[in-house]
Amino acid sequence: MAEDALHGSLAPAARRWQRVSPRLVPLLAVITALIISMLFMIVITLVTTGSVDIGKELNTTGTAYSALLEGSLGIVINNTLKPESLNQARDFLQTGTYSSRDLNRVSRAVSEIAARSDLPTLARYGEVLARYPNLTDEQIDELGAALPDIAAIGADTLEAMKPLVAGLGELSPGDARRLAESFTGMDTLSPEARAGLEAQVPAAAGYDDEDLLAYIQIAADEGAVKLGRLVGQLDSLAAAGLTPDAADAQDMAAIAARGAETIREQAALAAQIQAAGLSDPAALTTQLRLVRSLYEVELLTGPDVGAALRDDLESALQNAIVILRPNNQILFNRSGAPAGSIINNNNTPDDPSDDRLEAVYLRLGGSALVFLPSNLENMITRSIPYIIAGLAVALGFKAGLFNIGAEGQLYAGGTLAAWVGFSPLFAGLPGWLHLPLVIIAGVVGGLLWGAIPGFLKAFTGAHEVISTIMLNFIAILTVDWLIKSTNPVILLDTTASTPRTPFLLATARLPALNQIPVIWFILAGTLVLGWGLWTRRERIRQDARFAIRPIINGLLVLAGGLFLLWITVRGSLHLGLLVMIFAVWFTDWFLERTTLGFELRTVGANPDAARYAGMNVRLNTILALALGGSLAGLAGGIVVSGVQFNMQPGFFAGVGFDGIAVALLARSSPRNMIPAGLLWGALLSGAGLMQTRADISVDLVKIIQALIIMFIAADAIIRFLWRVPEPTLEEKEKSLLAAKGWGG
């Protein structure tokens, strides 16, 4: 009976899953791709190293995906600073008197200690320096630098050579060198040669032939000047009571390699670190840099840093929050900032000229949930061309065509838009006229380039896959030539250091959303509300509850607009976002609500039936590829006028091809294009941060993208893994449209 009850409780959930899960196949494909990529990393590590630490790999994967989330949506959980987080810095700084100006120098020195030496070694070096107070740092450096050469020649040999070296030193350096070199290669010393040598260096008479020949050849190899210096250092060693092979002498050589002055300072710091009971210089370095940041943002101001950490830090943190970021960065809510927000965090005092929102946070015990609006702003901006390029490809899918030419159409539209934007012919136009002309130019450029494969398909039967691929190369290389050509100069800005067109005029640039007055978003919400109430007026008269949806839609438009204004903190999110939303709505309306859209879909579903019904298949083929090209050109025009403000060779590399992936992920539905494009933009936006934080190549994102497309194309895998019901006949027909272009 218990088993029957269990099955009875699961049955409703299973039925709900069967109803809901078919719509979630793309989302399940993304989740599966993320899981498979994690397993892929574990397998690669196992194959390349022969072993794998599952815990470490899971931690690395978690770091990577957390960085993806932060780099795209701007959401991350960071630790907050607590007084005990700086205990090591407090204990160390209380061993002496340090001002805020000393923190840079001290943190660098402690960092070098952590990187190059252990504390016991530095302590020994400090003891060596203390045992020889009569030696200056310069003398120690000279002595230490000479020790390897003394050891190579031999201390006894140098001691025996002292009279000869002194005699050679009385000659000029050139004469001494020529005299010594004259004996090079001799196996025996002839009486004549000895007599000549003694005539110039009388001290040579005190050596027998064998030793004299050996010593004069050493002088030829090393030089009389160097030997004189080594003999002097040998005397310094003796005066200090040392021999070249003594332990202190060897330590002096190591000290000289890094500089006695540097070692003396580091040894003193090492002694202070040990006196404070610390053993981890790396952790101390991190804390010292955090203390420096606290002084830079004026959270701490006391002249004695150690005393400030002891007396002022706890009370300061009771009135503020300091969020710890990677690489010793902090987020700090300055006085006057709204609760839960951080304004203008640039580690300097408040600057009214740059008063922008940096982050929003929510305390979670010893951590904080942080939202960085600039990351989300960047991700949305980056997603706009992918969404519109996906629309361009999806429009072809609806007509049974595979438009792989979005890349070339982007270049055609972007280049024409750039020319209209910077050309002197349009320089006198006002912004309300010039900017629409730029966008229209992008649409026209893409439309014309997209119409070419449409005509070829309609009148010659040329396969659109082949013709659009070839037209991609033609467009890319043509734009490359137009911009790089110097004789004649066509589109090149001759004053630029890299090949590009001139910058667009100010009147040709899409304004940032934060430049748009709030009243326009209020007006947009009001219009949506009014339109909804008007279209439902008859039903509202019968039942007032029918007014709820228009009210909600109007509020959503207003709230969405205000949210976009709020996250546009760096001015990169531009009016092109609204153009993109309009393009998505218009494409969906065109396909679902117009006669041309119905004919286009009918031709895509069954060209023969469409022809029998009197529809013009050729015209619809041309129309589908031309309209798809116009959307791609629109994407090019938006990027040129909203982000780049000029055109460069290779600027759109890969965007058009990524549009194919976005269209497949959205199942060719214009309504699904926005979440699909945002996902694509999120993966690309977070890739760089993922590589920095987790030390994983950005190619992992490409692997995730490839897996997503594979699971979308072979959704039987996803349906099997997640127990999703088989697709209906209508779903199968829609999925077939995306593949018809391959077979013609």
Question: Can you put this structure into words, describing what you see?
Answer:
This protein is 69% helix and 4% strand. The chain is mainly alpha-helical. The longest helix has 30 residues. The two termini are 58 Å apart. The protein has 33 helices and six strands.
What would you report as the Rg, rounded to the nearest angstrom? 38 Å
Architecture of the largest domain, CATH level 2?
A: Orthogonal Bundle
Flag low-confidence runs: 347-353
| End-to-end distance | 58 Å
Q: How many domains would you count in the coordinates?
A: 4
Main pleated-sheet profile: 4 strands, antiparallel
Shape: elongated
- The CATH topology of the largest domain turns out to be ABC transporter involved in vitamin B12 uptake, BtuC
Structural class by sheet pairing and helices: mainly alpha
The count of β-strands is 6
Strand order, biggest sheet?
1-6-5-4
CATH top level assignment of the largest domain: Mainly Alpha
Helix content: 55-70%
- Work out the helix count: 33
Strand portion: under 5%
Query: Kindly state the mean pLDDT as a whole number?
Result: 87
Question: Quick gist of this model?
Answer:
This protein has 33 helices and 6 strands. By secondary structure, it is mainly alpha-helical. Strands 1-6-5-4 form a 4-stranded antiparallel beta sheet.
